[in-house]
Amino acid sequence: MKLTRTSDVAAKVEAKPLGMSRRQFMKTAGIATGGIAAASMLGTGMMRRAEAKDVPYNAPIEIKRTICSACAVGCGLYAEVQNGVWTGQEPAFDHPFNAGGHCAKGAALREHGHGEKRLKYPMKLEGGKWKRISWEQAINEVGDKMLSIRQESGPDSVYFMGSAKFSNEGCYMYRKLAAMWGTNNVDHSARICHSTTVAGVANTWGYGAQTNSFNDIQNARAIFFIGANPAEAHPVSMQHILTAKERNNAKIIVVDPRFSRTAAHADLHVGIRPGTDIPFIYGMLWHIFENGWEDKTFIDQRVFGMDKIREEAKKFPPKEVADITGVSEEAIYQAAKLMADNRPGTVVWCMGGTQHHVGNANTRAYSILQLALGNMGVSGGGTNIFRGHDNVQGATDLGLLFDNLPGYYGLTSAAWQHWTHVWDLDLEWVKGRFDHGTYLGREPMTTPGIPCSRWHDGVLEDKAKLAQKDNIRLAFFWGQSVNTETRQREVRDALDKMDTVVVVDPFPTMAGVMHRRKDGVYLLPAATQFETRGSISNSGRSIQWREQVIEPLFESKTDIEIMYRLAEKLGIAEQYTKRISKENGVPLIEDITREINRGMWTIGMTGQSPERIKAHTMNWGTFSQKSLEAEGGPCKGETYGLPWPCWGTPEMKHPGTQILYNTSKHVKDGGGNFRARYGVEYQGQNLLAEGSFSKGAEIEDGYPEFTADMLKQLGWWDDLTAAEKAEAEGRNWKTDLSGGIVRVAIKHGCIPFGNARARCVVWTFPDAVPVHREPLYTARRDLVAKYPTYDDMQVHRLPTLYKSIQEKDFSGSYPLVLTSGRLVEYEGGGEESRSNPWLAELQQEMFVEINPGDAADRGIRNNDNVWLEGPEGGRILIKALVTPRVKPGVTFMPYHFAGVMHGESLAPNYPEGTVPYVIGESANTALTYGYDPVTQMQETKSSLCQIVKA
């Protein structure tokens, strides 16, 4: 049977010109020759268009504005559609983020519209064979299994693995679906990329997000990368970085165990031993304090607890830091001096800093460095935290997390009360959806669930050790590949053990093929984000709207339709969409956006209506590529994408906040200060700002967060309308759905969340200040006694091991340090990008980088087949890349590969026609146990291995 698209006709309209063509761009910019920044701006966007052969060349062309679905830079492009077929694409030269730049993945986006390797229709594994089924059968069978498990084991035995590829609306509806099913066992890939950032940074100054923007890096005079390699992971961001280098003579410092492509641009590369970020930062702070380079006024007015950091830094003089980190004393000094001499400076980190069992402490240390230098709340400064998926920021904001509801409200009874108010539901009905037993002293509704880094432990662990009624028995793997998790042997065992595996994805993914099952697996074809519409948030908190490029291919359905069909089957559709109208029998996306705006007061994701977001996207050419402000047109004076906090209701027309905590601006213009999130005092010490406040504030000092009672005390209560008073009574700025408290606070020049000092001491964390702890699997056994890990502990619902692993010495049999990272050609688990022929051609082999000396000691030559084995027994057969990019004793692997396990190809397990063009061993088969005690981030950046010639 020949498969056909459900729609193959586009409205016949005359071709519209792109916002700016290459010729127009070259003429306008006056580029004939050009420096580094100009060359990088053009980048790989200068490619010929690919066209579908089966569409007449003169068919009418529709132009759709959309956003790249790779990393979170948020690059804009123009998609060209003819007769319903995506025939061409152009990078948007008038887009404020990418200015016509594309990386390899962006240049290959059109392949999404053809999808030779995609799932074509719903399938079921039956008797070891893939069988085509209807959507009705799939929804009925999966729904029946869910209801049966609920009856026997409770709602927590169903797991909802979500996706950073959802739109904001998809993220919100998925978290809402889990809530109305009655579980907090829901999570997504931020758990294993930036969860430690969110926890560490939010607990330092209020919000756990990038503080500035990619474009603002152009204003930096120093750029400090630690655990970040944007030249490969976020290539288009390099145009902003190199602009700063060329125009400002900005100094670039790269702290990375490898000499990466980003390090090639650096003034200083520091190759620390993996897992030693904290002592290195303390080593820098030692020099900063010794030489009086700290910003004393900034610290006195806006920072709490820096004295504790001074005490800790004294423990890390240059000699000690050099011994721990493996770098020279001179390099430590130079890094500190370059940052001190070249302000404002920005700090950039990615997963090299976060994926450690002390990841939250790492991110706090980076933040403290910026506080010491006074680099916060200023243009060219801040912590620019680059996110790895196109909407991982939005997915985190919208509560696609095991420990939060949307907007970081947490899971307290007050948080549930707020969101049921937003949903206009009876709180008792929502409570009734949950298991109200008590397990290990915890109640499921107000206890974080099981993180996606350890869902397999939720399947395999003795249920007597779990803080829930029973093990996980059914899991959705919705837009997330399981080969991105460590301990792949346990992942496979868990897939084998569960009653049912449900994959919802454009591709089969590893969850669908790495098991050894004969039945009980469903593959449901989800449309890509180019086959629907909706909003997404980039790393800098800017929100953009994707127009729908084409209709869903084959028999695929959009995420939101699939969620709604499940809700109908489960009997919760009425409550699920109570405030949301339907369009062709499916929830209206714009209504979902409006419901998000109704509830997201904590982060100010309330002022961006779908109409405002669309206006920005449709007029992106009117925004400055330097300042991100619209210089004219319908959005004049606003910041592109209305980055949150965009305070109040859409009618307030707040312009968005590009730079967080910037006291030089009025709050109504995007200014602010550090958030009063932790009370007003600690152990008798003031936590509020002293003598520092944002421009125009009528309270010229620190102040707590705003409540109805505070408005009354200030005499501002009567500034509210009668309707606002009725809603605001007894509430605070986070729970007042009228927005009146927020509106009045801003009217008086104050920020709704209060004005506090950033804190260096987090008294609720296992380590109040960042503490160096050796990796669980460390080759430096001589340092374990001085810098030990934690004792084993229960973290939320799961027992978590620390000391019992570290006390075992594996360094004799596994002497090489193992770390991992990203390649420019691929992304995430690689299922999508390795199924793209244009990308697969560029990198066809899984490999390990090994230093020439280590290779010679093992008789290994470049391109040899080798076995790499980790200390927990995972073995992988891969190629050796012999290179001095890694130091002696250190090895590196990319994490995008899968489809081979222990040397055995899994290609026979795929449905016919869906095997990716490139398959290979997963790095995570060899990577090992290790989890952050706050967030359960996995430790993928510091383990051990041995390598032998195959």
What does this structure look like?
The protein is of the alpha/beta class. The chain is 28% helix and 15% strand. It is built from 31 helices and 34 strands. Strands 5-4-16-15-14-6-7 form a seven-stranded mixed β-sheet. α9 (277-290) packs antiparallel against α12 (318-325) and α9 (277-290) packs across α13. The radius of gyration is 26 Å and the shape is globular. The two termini are 45 Å apart.
Write a short abstract of this structure:
Helix content is 28%, strand content 15%. By secondary structure, the chain is of the alpha/beta class.
Question: How large, in whole angstroms, is the Cα Rg?
Answer: 26 Å
The shape is: globular
Q: Helical segment tally?
A: 31
Mean model confidence by pLDDT? 94
Termini separation comes to 45 Å
Percent of residues in beta strands: 5-15%
Strand order of the largest sheet: 5-4-16-15-14-6-7
Any low-confidence stretches, pLDDT <50, length ≥5? 1-17, 21-52
| Helix content, binned percent | 25-40%
Q: Biggest β-sheet: count, sense, barrel?
A: 7 strands, mixed
> Based on helices, strands and strand pairing, what is the structural class?
alpha/beta
